[in-house]
Write a structure and sequence with these properties.
- 31% of the residues lie in helices and 22% in strands.
- The chain is of the alpha/beta class.
- The chain has three domains: 156 residues, Rossmann fold (3-Layer(aba) Sandwich); 174 residues, 3-Layer(aba) Sandwich (Rossmann fold); 83 residues, GMP Synthetase, Chain A, domain 3 (2-Layer Sandwich).
- Strands 2-3-1-4-5-6 form a six-stranded mixed β-sheet, with helices on both faces.
- The protein starts with a strand and ends with a helix.
């Protein structure tokens, strides 16, 4: 795995701003409200040929008795244990306080190298770093994230602690986004799947605000779960609010994912309007997916009956694959990754042009394209230019003659011969006018 660099510090010292600056895009939520970043946020970063994972953590207040603060502290401790290098960020404007000293004591017990960074020195007042020597963590490095001063020096220091490269890692990490309404058990599923507490779990809706990247290995391959904020109805969320930014990140997580787990609450009698709206987002994005019906331990419902509900409400994505699980008891959770691999393989299938044209020929023999105003569509051939989602281009004499029903018929005929379950497929009709 890539070296892991964890950013540690008390609230409001600029950790998330530093994180976003290094990663080159706005990934972590930045807000003046303490406690906005609750979980560990992972992102890929690079400096002078060194690739690494940067981890943003919640602001630490070790002595706080607040429930969320205690959870944040636990998550930060995990980040410290996993990290190859720790960046301890402090505030050069306010100077050392008791919270900094408490965090420093924790870091000194760790054997991980610590880079002490004094932020908010907009005029690079070096003298403001002197008092931080008292923390006993080596030479403090001056930094102004807002002014982009000192970032290069800090990164040079960080990568100096990395182990020497032995071989190039080219294997792609497969991202699995987990989406659903608030409080359907997305974070509990992540923790159960990876076998440890990696994200904050609470009965309070909205606990997960950022999209949290959780790397892991399965079947000797690199994966990462992306635990997203629960999606509520648009009118329930102010776009300028912290939660509004979370919704945007969830949509981005779907777009960037290789596979999506769509989590429903199995303790409820039926799907809500928001449930199948979320499924619609995934379908429109063209992502392979697994429908995970969670909380199946709460009542002994009839799976066949619930499956019929899914077939009715998800008729627009009748290719869906479902699994019934309990994140609480662990029932069937171990089968989720098998489903993930299956739907991803289906979405990645490339079919030979010869086989595709055989399927197309048989489909036309069974049902000719409909005529319009005396003019009949003449289908010429089919090819597959891309995967994820599998995309098929059918060449005809006039694309306007192929209506939605016939396009759907052709898709069904392809699915009858090739297993694309769990993955949408895209059919593009091109006429002579498209070639010219």
């Amino acid at each position: 795995m890539k070296p892991i660099v964890a950013i540690i510090g008390r609230p409001n010292v600029g950790k998330s701003t530093f994180f976003n600056k290094i990663c080159g895009k706005r990934i972590s939520i930045v807000d003046d409200t303490p406690g906005v970043t609750r979980d560990r946020i992972y992102a890929d970063a690079e400096w002078c040929g060194h690739d690494f994972l940067l981890v943003d953590t919640g602001g630490l207040d070790p002595k706080s008795e607040d429930k969320f603060q205690q959870d944040i502290f636990k998550q930060a401790q995990v980040a410290i244990e996993q990290a190859h290098v720790i960046v301890f960020l402090v505030d050069g404007k306010t100077g050392v306080n008791a919270n900094d000293e408490d965090v420093a004591k924790i870091l000194k017990r760790s054997k991980t190298p610590v880079v002490l960074v004094v932020n908010k020195l907009d005029n690079f007042e070096i003298e403001n770093t002197y008092e931080f020597y008292g923390l006993g963590l080596g030479d403090p490095m001056p930094l102004s994230v807002e002014q982009s001063k000192g970032i290069g020096d800090v990164l040079d220091k960080i990568v100096s602690y990395f182990p020497q490269k032995t071989e190039k890692q080219d294997e792609k990490m497969t991202k699995i986004a987990i989406v659903g309404r608030p409080n359907v058990g997305k974070s509990s599923l992540v923790n159960r799947l990876v076998g440890q507490s990696r994200v904050v779990v609470s009965d309070i809706e909205g606990t997960t605000r950022d999209s949290v990247l959780v790397p892991f290995r399965y079947n000797k391959k690199d994966y990462a779960f992306v635990d997203t904020a629960g999606l509520r109805r648009a009118r329930s969320v102010e776009k300028a609010s912290i939660e509004g930014y979370s919704v945007l990140r969830t949509m981005n997580a779907i777009e960037e994912a290789d596979v999506v787990l769509i989590v429903f609450d199995g303790s409820e009698e039926k799907l809500s309007e928001q449930d199948f709206r979320i499924a619609g987002f995934v379908h429109e994005a063209g992502k392979p997916s697994v429908v995970v019906v969670n909380k199946w331990d709460i009542k002994n419902s009839n799976k066949n009956a619930f499956e019929e509900i899914l077939k009715k409400d998800l008729a627009f994505m009748d290719y869906f694959k479902s699994i019934y699980v309990s994140a609480l008891t662990g029932e069937s959770v171990g089968q989720i990754m098998e489903k993930v691999e299956q739907v991803y393989q289906n979405a990645s299938k490339r079919i030979s042009t010869g086989l595709l044209n055989e399927i197309l020929h048989d489909a036309i023999l069974n049902y000719q394209p409909p005529a319009h105003k005396g003019k009949r569509c003449k289908v010429q051939y089919i090819t597959q230019p891309s995967t994820n989602p599998p995309t098929f281009v059918i060449f005809v004499n006039d694309a306007k003659l192929v209506n939605f029903s016939y396009r759907r018929y052709l898709e069904n005929k392809i699915r009858e011969k090739i297993d694309f379950s769990g993955s949408p497929i895209k059919i593009v009709i091109r006429g002579r006018e498209d070639k010219e």
